[in-house]
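Notes from the 1:1 (GR / supervisor)

We went over the backlog. Supervisor wanted to see one worked example end to end before approving the batch request, so GR pasted a single chain during the call. The sequence is below; no edits were made to it. Supervisor asked that the structure be written out right there so they could see what the output format looks like.
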Amino acid sequence: MARDEITLRYGCNPHQDVARLFAESGKLPITVRNGAPGYINMMDALNAWQLVRELKQALGLPAAASFKHVSPAGAAVGVALGDALQKAYFVEGMELSPLAEAYARARGADRMSSFGDFVAVSDVLDAPTARILRKEISDGVIAPAYEDEALEILQKKRGGKYLCLEIDPAYEPPEMESKDIFGLTLEQKRNDLVITESLLDNVVTKNRNLPDEAKRDLIVATIALKYAQSNSVCFAMDGQVIGMGAGQQSRVHCTRLAASKADIWWLRQHPDVLAYQFKKGLARPNRDNAVENSLLDDLNPAQQTAWEAAFDVVPTRLTVEQKKEWMAKLDGVSLSSDAFFPFRDSIDRAHESGVKYIVEPGGSLRDDEVIAAADEYGMVMAFSGIRLFHH
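Structure output shown during the call:
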């Protein structure tokens, strides 16, 4: 009996021109509604779908993820967007359903990294979400179903080649999973750990006050980590990822990367930045580049030229002092780490970016030093006892 399979355009690279997705038994739970998938598309889609499915199950809210190279650039649940974020995410004046708000947040976490993203949504993809997707540079989307109008909108994207995948929401994978490397097969039990608030019960700091919003954000960050390439550290706030540091070999480098992205997310909301008047018709990626360039302390000649070209009247960039003053207002950020902090350096860096709430597995020889650092800053830290490496 022939296996149910989908032929892929190519593997990780175009010269790997034999690639497919198949099920060893039974029918595939995925249907291609538009476009032609590649190997990395499917890797992103399958990881991203698991992430949004878990977010919806954990928090009961519509969820979305923006994936690049098998890690989430952003993930979020459908929390209402305020005026500042609507403007920062370029969705001001658009019809916004809860699912559309979730995707706008997921895309807005790190708009530079989300360029050419693969998207997952937990609910039926509706027209408001499709209208946002139509405006963004994106490779494809996976959803449990599509509204007719939404599919019509997306089928016109990228010259009709935009990839739309539909997955059976009732599909459950086998308990065991395997991966072939160099002709040899690795096998393990699937990571089916359910992320719940119980992972936050073991608070180890003097400050034990975890508000409901922080619990929500810690869950968002932890579920995002579960599907990010390790090592990884995730910052979250307001129901969304605001900085993901994934795939680093050092824990503090994960933290620095995530923190730098969180800083940019916050600086994008500075009133002077929100007031930028871009040239009429300037493409969204060019606006993103202009905003990022505006937040650098120094611009090289090429960056300066690109920055000036985005405006008819070039605005004044934020000064170092303005940025410091604005960053001092960032507070209440949640942080999750996929493994323990071996030193206090990550806590010190996290404090600079407004982190107040932390969950990590614990188990380091220097746990006492890490806890002491958190206590110095008045943070709340919970030890989950659970490592979440993902490769």
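Supervisor's comment: The longest strand covers residues 71-77.
Batch request approved.
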